[in-house]
Design a protein that fits this description.
By secondary structure, the chain is α/β, with parallel strands linked by helices. The chain has 4 domains: 100 residues, NAD(P)-binding Rossmann-like Domain (Rossmann fold, 3-Layer(aba) Sandwich), CATH 3.40.50; 58 residues, Helicase, Ruva Protein, domain 3, CATH 1.10.8; 114 residues, Cobalt-precorrin-4 Transmethylase, domain 1 (3-Layer(aba) Sandwich), CATH 3.40.1010.10; 128 residues, Methyltransferase, Cobalt-precorrin-4 Transmethylase, Domain 2 (2-Layer Sandwich), CATH 3.30.950.10. Helix content is 36%, strand content 19%. It has a 6-stranded mixed beta sheet. Bound molecules: S-adenosyl-L-homocysteine.
């Protein structure tokens, strides 16, 4: 290890900064957040630093450096463009055991500044010892994405309740179990969402009844198939889950994001094939949550678009289960982007309607005159079985037979296939496409030829 990471308490400690350029300003900002006393030596100072001096946040003690200024200094930063002066400052500080950092000169630093991810009081400091700054930046981005902005509030609450928890659980193991259970529960999400009252009530409840099980169900939209389109939140909860119940449109790539030792249960339903009923899925979700499990219910696209997410949420709320919903990119939106077919466009369509073909005729009376209005783009999920009726009704109610249509199968994935044709041909096109497939009807489809960017398409 080239350096030992330590966390310094700089409150009310004297810091000397020689030089007042942009780099110095960055250091001043960090040091101010640590409540240090900051003294500046510089010929001239920028407007921003002048403001800080005027407001007595920092002190401008001289224009010229003198050795006597080092007295009582805890830490020194040399940020001048005078190499000789920097060297001299380093040598004197080193001799007098004062921590010193010469900016951009690693050989003249008794300490270096790490890259900081600040979620106070949680602070993550990382460093590559100056060897790979770009790699460090990548790593930092990864860590930042794992730590929501309000992450620190979790530690703040824990700090406030630490004594009370200690008094309630005299045994160290019990205390450890308490905190582990709390931090693995929905408590965390309540804090992150700013619902601190709810979070505290979970905490209080757990102090009173430490053996209560706090399971939860998270309805998660996994997007249209390409794992690049998972949301950050979806990945977070998949990595946290104890059990995952997933549908048949969830690809292997996506399942790979699930925590290795989580239990995965396939509950897919395919049209026309007998499989687990919706009632049984809901029963299983409730059962697992009541066992104290963190259950992820993983659905294709978005849970609330033809995904029965609404029904499941309602049943879970009725059963008093803690629930969260993570939206996903619905097939219509994802496929619109990956096929270069904007669903609205000032010159072609003033609105878009999402419908399912599955129930077009049997149970629901669609308003065919609205659906046939050519100023709207139609996005039809599960259209294959009813394709010919859909096209007949639309033509009967006024859409032109020549209206362009796109049938996109396995959209957004490397197997995506876009077939372009006319409204009066859709049943024939469907016969040649494999599932899952999505139907887009409307003048915007004509833009595909020009706007396609992801893969080549077929003209029917
Ligand atoms: N909740 C999902 C939709 C579930 S219904 C969502 O928001 O996307 C399932 C239907 O969605 C399929 O029959 C098909 O019409 C469409 N679909 C989902 N993924 C698709 C994909 N990758 N390519 C084409 N169609 C897709």
């Amino acid at each position: 290890m080239d350096y030992l990471p330590v966390f310094l308490d700089l409150k009310s400690k004297n810091i000397l900064i020689i030089g007042a350029g942009d780099i110095a300003l960055n250091k001043i900002k960090i040091l101010l957040s640590c409540k240090a006393i900051i003294n500046i030596i510089s010929q001239d100072v920028s407007l921003e630093i002048q403001d800080l001096i005027k407001n007595k946040k920092i002190f401008w003690i001289s224009k010229e450096f003198k050795i006597s200024f080092l007295e009582n200094m805890f830490l020194v930063i040399a940020a001048t463009n005078n190499t000789k002066l920097n060297k001299k400052i380093f040598e004197i500080c080193n001799k007098n055991r004062i921590l010193v950092n010469v900016v951009d000169d690693k050989s003249r630093c008794s300490f270096i500044f790490p890259s900081i991810i600040n979620r106070s009081p949680i602070i993550v400091a990382i460093s590559s010892a100056g060897k790979a700054p770009v790699l460090l930046r990548l790593l930092r981005k990864k860590i930042e994405s794992m730590l929501p902005i309000k992450f620190g509030n979790i530690a703040k609450i824990a700090g406030k309740w630490r004594e009370i928890v200690k008094n309630n659980f005299s045994n160290i193991l019990e205390r450890k179990n308490f905190w582990e259970k709390l931090f693995n529960s929905i408590f965390i999400q309540y804090v992150i969402n700013g619902q601190e009252k709810k979070a505290i009530s979970i905490l209080k409840n757990m102090i009173k009844r430490p053996n209560t099980l706090i399971g939860e169900v998270i309805l998660v939209g996994a997007g249209p198939g390409n794992s690049d389109l998972l949301t950050l939140r979806a990945v977070q909860v998949m990595q946290d889950a104890d059990v995952v119940l997933y549908d048949n449109l969830i690809s292997k790539d996506i399942l790979n994001f699930i925590r290795r030792d989580a239990k995965c249960i396939y509950v897919g339903k395919k049209a026309g094939i007998k499989s687990i009923t919706q009632k049984k899925i809901i029963k299983l979700l409730i059962f697992l949550a009541k066992e104290g499990k963190k259950v992820v219910r993983l659905k294709g696209g978005d849970p609330f678009i033809f995904g029965r997410g609404g029904e499941e949420l309602e049943a879970l709320k009725n059963a008093n289960i803690n629930v969260q919903v993570v939206p996903g990119i619905t097939a219509g939106i994802g496929i619109s982007a990956y096929s270069g077919i904007p669903l609205t466009h000032r010159d072609y369509a003033q609105g878009v309607i999402f419908i399912t073909g599955h129930k077009c005729f049997n149970n629901v009376l669609n308003n065919w005159s609205v659906l046939s209005d050519s100023s709207y783009t139609l996005v039809i999920y599960m259209a294959s079985l009813k394709a010919s009726e859909i096209s007949k009704q639309l033509i009967l109610n006024g859409r032109l037979q020549s209206t362009p249509v796109a049938i996109i199968s396995q959209g957004t994935t490397i197997k995506q296939k876009v077939t372009i044709g006319r409204l009066d041909e859709i049943d024939k096109i469907f016969k040649l496409t494999i599932s899952p497939s999505l139907l887009i009807i409307g003048d915007v489809v004509s833009l595909h030829k020009k706007l396609t960017w992801f893969k080549d398409s077929t003209l029917f």
